[in-house]
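User: Here's a structure from my thesis project, written as structure tokens. My advisor, Dr. K., wants to see whether a designed sequence matches the one we expressed. Can you design one independently, without my sequence as a hint?
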């Protein structure tokens, strides 16, 4: 982590192993590294507690490999989102990664173990919502959170959700992922005493308008404590859920 590197530099100055001038040069090199096609933000972990995340869509495998190697050299585990199976295969030929084709997320380096007692629950309205839900779940797990999945518990068969009330009530954060009319978030928001992050998906018939109907339903939720991210933005939901979960404290 970048905090460890800065602490090491300061300790080396204290011990007389490096001069203050050399330490100043090292610190100047810390904020970001210019690769030409990307400026890698090495101070992201220091500012936000989480290293920069690589958005894989639109980048070439070579660019992804270059950014990942730059971050790994600084000791950061690297999370890569929206990585196609074809790009993942090309990247894996150059560096070691673990890849989940459902969430389209890859991870390079050592994945952190859960470091908080709080649990995130990721629920979906239907099976078709699972790819977005997995993006949220895998993101949260990669950021050190225990995650429990409740899939296909939508309002078309409400008894499926009510059978898992104990799971919902024990969560610190719930991520509700749904397309169609997006009603799942309001139902969960009316049952739970924790924050609910609603994720509208583009799943649905023609009048769903690519997820717009679910987005508007979630924005107009009458349940308190429901916040909404963009359509199909599982990563944003998983990241926000992790931030909320870690506000409750970490393991000692």
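Assistant: Designed independently from the structure alone:
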């Amino acid at each position: 982590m970048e905090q460890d590197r800065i602490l090491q530099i300061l300790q080396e100055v204290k011990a007389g192993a490096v001069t203050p001038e050399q330490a100043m040069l090292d610190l100047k090199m810390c904020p970001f590294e210019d690769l030409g096609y990307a400026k890698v933000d090495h101070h992201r972990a220091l500012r936000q507690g989480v290293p920069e995340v690589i958005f894989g869509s639109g980048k070439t495998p070579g660019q992804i490999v270059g950014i990942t190697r730059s971050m790994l050299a600084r000791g950061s585990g690297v999370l890569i989102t929206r990585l196609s199976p074809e790009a993942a295969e090309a990247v894996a030929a150059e560096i070691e990664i673990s890849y989940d084709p459902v969430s389209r997320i890859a991870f390079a380096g050592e994945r952190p173990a859960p470091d908080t007692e709080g649990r995130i629950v990721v629920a979906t309205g239907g099976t078709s919502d699972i790819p977005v839900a997995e993006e949220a779940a895998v993101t949260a797990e990669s950021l050190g959170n225990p995650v429990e999945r409740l899939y296909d518990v939508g309002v078309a068969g409400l008894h499926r959700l009510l059978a898992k009330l104990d799971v919902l009530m024990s969560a610190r954060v719930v991520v509700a992922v749904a397309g169609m009319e997006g009603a799942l978030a309001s139902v969960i928001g009316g049952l739970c005493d924790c924050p609910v992050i609603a994720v509208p998906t583009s799943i649905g018939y023609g009048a769903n308008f690519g997820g717009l109907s679910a987005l508007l339903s979630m924005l107009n939720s009458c349940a308190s404590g429901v916040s909404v991210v963009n359509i199909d933005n599982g990563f944003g939901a998983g990241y926000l859920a992790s931030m909320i979960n870690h506000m409750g404290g970490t393991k000692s």
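When you compare it with your expressed construct, this may help: The chain has a mean pLDDT of 88.
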